Amino acid sequence: MIAREWKCRVPEAHNEGFTAYLYETGVKDSSATPGFLGAQIFRRSLTGKIELTLITYWDKLESIHTFAGHDISQARLYPEDEVYELEPDLSVQHYEVIEHRFSPELRGINRCSCFVTSQSSSFRPPPDVPVGPPLISALRL
């Protein structure tokens, strides 16, 4: 399994809007690509900004080429990114995943909007799963 990491920063005022946009662009396009295994989005507060890290999981490098093109070290950016005053990293990092483990009560469950698998029917969590500010706050470092 290969993990692909991309980071960006947006002004706090664009936090919610850009996060939704990220689902509709990067996460949606990734998950429609053969070989996509899952995704996580991490968020942390900086001074006046929010940093988002998108990690997508892939079965092999060839699948990433299908998504990203010839040079997989370059970030895949979208035309509307500038609307959110995005400060994107222009390159991405790739890692071989040598261990991944979730607690037994979380295995196989899409518990929140922070993890999307290729088997998920939606990018949004089920209506009965809370994803408001308390959950997001709990995920911040």
Notes on the protein architecture:
- This protein is of the alpha+beta class and 141 residues long.
- 23% of the residues lie in helices and 28% in strands.
- Strands 1, 2, 3, 4, 5 and 6 form a 6-stranded antiparallel β-sheet that branches.
- Strand 2 (36-46) and strand 3 (49-58) form a beta hairpin.
- The longest helix is centred in the N-terminal third of the chain and has 17 residues, at 15-31.
- The chain is globular.
- The protein starts with a strand and ends with a helix.
List the helices and strands and how they pair.
Layout lengths: L1 E10 L3 H17 L4 E11 L2 E10 L2 H8 L18 E2 L4 E4 L18 E3 L15 H7 L2
Compact overview of the structure:
This protein is α+β, with helices and mostly antiparallel strands and 141 residues long. The chain has helices at residues 15-31, 61-68, 133-139, and strands at residues 2-11, 36-46, 49-58, 87-88, 93-96, 115-117. Strands 1, 2, 3, 4, 5 and 6 form a six-stranded antiparallel sheet that branches.
Residues in helix, %: 10-25%
Distance between the termini: 25 Å
Rg, Cα atoms, Å: 15 Å
Order of helices and strands: EHEEHEEEH
Biggest sheet character: 6 strands, antiparallel
